[in-house]
Amino acid sequence: MISRTGSEDASRWSALSSDYERARTREDSLDRLVEWPAERDLLGDVAGLSVLDAGCASGAKVAELVDAGATASVGVDISGDFIPDPPPGLELIHGDLSDLSAVPDLAGRRFDRILFLQSFGYAKDPVDALRTARAMLTDDGFILLTRTQPIRYAIERAEQNGTTLGEEYFSTDTFSYRHRNWNEDVVLTKRPYTMSDLLNTFSAAGLWIETTVEPQMPEDARREYPHKQAVMDKYLGILLFKLRPLAR
Ligand SMILES: C[S@@+](CC[C@H](N)C(=O)[O-])C[C@H]1O[C@@H](n2cnc3c(N)ncnc32)[C@H](O)[C@@H]1O
After folding, report:
1. What are the pLDDT digits (tens) for 178-228?
2. pLDDT of 146 over the 70 cut
3. Pairwise CA distance, residues 29 & 26, whole Å
4. Is residue 118 left, alpha or beta, with left meaning phi > 0 and alpha meaning psi from -120 to 50?
5. Ligand 1 contact, 145 CB (< 6 A)
6. Is there a contact between 30 and 39 (Cβ–Cβ < 8 Å)?
7. Residue 64 · residue 55 · CB < 8 Å
8. Residue 63 C-alpha to ligand 1 middle, in angstroms?
9. Atom of ligand 1 nearest to the CA of 96
10. Are 227 and 221 in contact (CB under 8 A)?
11. 1 and 16 in contact (C-beta within 8 Å)?
């Protein structure tokens, strides 16, 4: 099962969504221990703010933001496998993050915060997707975007292929990927990227980086979950970017 974009992505993610959610909500998941706390920290107080979560999975994260006071918020995901009872003030929509302006009900709307949390890699055209999101921000709005450290995939592929880190890091060939904690039967096709690819994408979309964070495990979690610290030590974790529009 190999997928890249569009309807193929939808079927792969429909197959993966419950496995992803199960893995994400485990007590030792890196999302729970490292990523969501860091994402929450960068978002700060969301009371009275509208949030658009692009690639929201079940919608549980954006629902938590609405519980914390966010209003008129939306989650969009291609899997369409959402929490059954979203709180008032939250709409969950089956759609493609590649062109948010084409998602039903989003035309003409503006948001204070737009999130791409571990979902940006699935955009058909990354620059285009970000430009569209940028145009949907309110005047003081920002985008919170996270991506896996590209070195992680390069290390994995170098181990699998008997090659070197540099060969894989700078390779431009798409590659098949099975996530061992989600469902190894579902294979996604990923586009490789380097740090410069990522930074150039932000520039081309007319965004500047206000803050970048490389979150690590808190001390108590390191002691409690040494196997997860070992994963962080080997693969480094994720990058978080707070992106604002350059003057229009
Ligand atoms: C790794 S999960 C991250 C989920 C969530 N943002 C989080 O931080 O827990 C990637 C999500 O992107 C969604 N996705 C993949 N391709 C998409 C697309 N083209 N449009 C919308 N959502 C997509 C998947 O269904 C999945 O829920």
Report:
1. 777 777 777 788 889 999 999 999 999 999 999 999 999 999 999 999 999
2. yes
3. 5
4. left
5. no
6. no
7. no
8. 15
9. 20
10. no
11. no
For residue 246, the 8-state DSSP code is P
CA of residue 145 to ligand 1 center, whole Å: 12
Map tokens 């978002």 to a residue.
43
Scan for tokens 């979150």, then name that residue.
Answer: 215
pLDDT band of residue 7 (cuts 50, 70, 90) is: low
Rounded CA gap, 54 and 220, in Å? 31
What's the pLDDT score for residue 18? Answer: 86
Q: What are phi and psi of 151, to 5 degrees?
A: -65, -30
CB of 78 closer than 6 angstroms to any ligand 1 atom: yes
Token pair belonging to 247 = 């003057």
- C-beta contacts of 133-137 below 8 A and 24+ residues apart: 133/52, 133/54, 133/100, 134/205, 134/206, 134/207, 134/245, 135/101, 136/52, 136/100, 136/101, 136/106, 136/109, 136/110, 136/111, 137/110, 137/111, 137/112, 137/245
Task: Give the whole-angstrom CA distance, residue 43 versus residue 38.
Answer: 9
Model confidence, pTM: 0.95
Sheet holding 90-94, edge to edge: 90-94, 71-77, 50-54, 111-117, 137-148, 238-245, 207-213
Amino acid, single-letter form, for residue 49: L
- Rounded Cα–Cα distance for residues 245 and 207 (Å): 4
